[in-house]
Amino acid sequence: MGVVVVTSSRTAEDIREVTSNITVIDEETLENSAAITLEEILSESGFTVTKNPGSLGTVTVRGFSTDSHGLDLGSHVLILLNGRRLGTGNVSMISLANVERVEVIRGPAATQYGAAAMGGVVNVITKKGIGLPFGASLEAGVGSFSANKEKARFIGSYRNFDFAVGLSHAKYGSYKIGGGGTFNNTAFENYAGSGEFGYAFLDSHRVALSFNFFDSPQSGSPGSYSANGVQSSNWTRKYNYSLGVDYNGATRDEKISWLVRYNVGKDFRGYHYPSGSQEYGWNIVDAQTGQAQVTYAGNFWDLTGGFDYLNYDISQSASFNTTPNSVYRDQAFFALGKLRFFDDRLILSAGARRDYFSFKPEEGNGSTNKRNLSPSLGIAYLPWPFMKIRAHYSKGFAMPTPIQLVADYTNAAGTHFQGDPNLQPEKSDSYEVGMDLMGRHSMASLSYFWTKSKNFIESTRPSATERLYRNMDVAYRSGLELSFGLDIGGLLGRDFVLKPTFALTHMFVFKTRLTPTANFDKIADIEDNVMSVGLLYKYDPIGFAASLNISRHSKNYNPNGSKDRDAYGVVSLNARKRIWDFADKGELSAVLEAQNFTDELYRTTSGSSYYYMPGRSVTVSLRYDY
Fold this sequence. Notes:
This protein is mainly beta. The protein has one domain: TonB-dependent receptor, beta-barrel domain (Maltoporin, Chain A, Beta Barrel). The chain is built from five helices and 39 strands. It has a 22-stranded antiparallel beta barrel. Strands 3-9-10-7-8 form a five-stranded mixed sheet. The longest helix has 7 residues.
């Protein structure tokens, strides 16, 4: 109770008033996890995460995924940093070094954020130094696979100024897969960080400069383990950065508040293939985004309205040759409202968004202009302060990507990719009902969801050497979400934390068909069960904390219903013990992390590429906190 979230309504609200299912990965969970990237913490929290060597990962929510190559244009789950687009759907490229919490909207959020949010939104909220004294955290460690990693965080304020900065570095050699066997050319090195510098004035006004970056200068691209060594000299280069400026203001009584922000960024993907016909290729997305919104917060009703702007300038090397250089734009107007009745026990929410899209390649055909209206409606009823019953309806949509519209190229394997400039946007209708129990030391949530998608864009294979993009007639997805958490120590009134957690997503239906008379096929790369079990223990008087996490993923399927990938489970451990207390000068702790503790042989990817994940690894670190 009392948890404040910002993603669902684009402004701060009590989680009890949210009418859709939202998951919050809080600061305590982040601090006591072995995860160092968004990819890893989502996997530990009961989401399907597909990982590839070379810092490439996607997340799936309700059967919808981010783009497999990182671009948010092709995503059905939108990745945000403090409410801003990063131009990427690659969850491996976001460090947790400066993150306060992660909010995940399960289900469409097109009304709030537009295209690419058909399946949900993952919003990473970074730390802020407003009103805090100076603090710092430094950590360095070594481990398996010739690993070394460092992390630093600085936070605080001075008079009207505040700051919060987190930086991280990780370097790993080629790893061994579960059960032994070195997976050659899987070494990588990453640099990442984020930060915000703010200045407050006139009581309720603040301007802030923010930055975020990720750089992987050279990551091995090994190919399938079954052909290990054949492509051992291939590598990739990836980086993503963004710079932004925000202005937040409010009236003296804070009934009316506003936000104006502007952001620029770049997402770069480079590929080096010395053994093939394309020695080096690259793709760049230069992004500009802007937001403006005004909120009225009354006693009985709230209203937020605003404008969003997005411009993606896409370019690539001649050798890359997947789609021509092009410009993709979106301008949108939105309104989100909420009504409260019966002493805030009945909440009604509604919203609508109008998007105006344009896509224009520099050469050739394929220019398109589209409009889309995305409404939503929700209700929440609290018969008691600890119980919420909710229902939600919303429309989602996804625009065809440049590759899907105008691709015309043959890859190194001899497959010809052909786009279709007449592709229609995907559109969905989603319904959910659920119940949440919220206590001081416990929480539980149960949700059922059902989604029907029209014009679902699928990559089809008319022959072994052809791949075409087509609008499918219809696609259905439905499932059940269950989560539970309990702090036994708090419940008993003790000074320790003992918190078991559980999360499960079960998919009842995930099917699609090409025409109204065709048979239904399964939608590929969807697991019918994803489960996460966690246990956290903390005892602050001796400076000890330990966590255990077990994630279990069922097999997934080919379109014909046959098994494509085996089920697997991964166990991770994390422990921290204070070894020296410097009183008012801080404290020194030892940290032990063990990933894939049972040495499971597993892969998260489907198809013929056997990208096995690392086997058991152990990292030992020293951490200084002030």
